[in-house]
Amino acid sequence: MELAEPEIRETLLAENEEFRALAEQHAAYDVRLEELSSKHLPSEQERFEEVEIKKHKLQLKDQMAAMIREYRSEEPAAVAH
To answer: What is this structure's pTM?
Structure first.
């Protein structure tokens, strides 16, 4: 039986150091974005930082999604053993 994405994510968080590091960085970017979005009048530098963080978050999300897809493609082999 194929695992759902949240189950795969939890497995990877528990077992895969690279995935865990990506998820931690993604969460740290979330915190910083929350700080930046709470500013009433952000500076030019803060607006630029916000755009850059969003780009980095997307890259991290893409990397994690690729790892989830890879895990899913290898899942039948792992279940058979």
So the answer is: 0.82
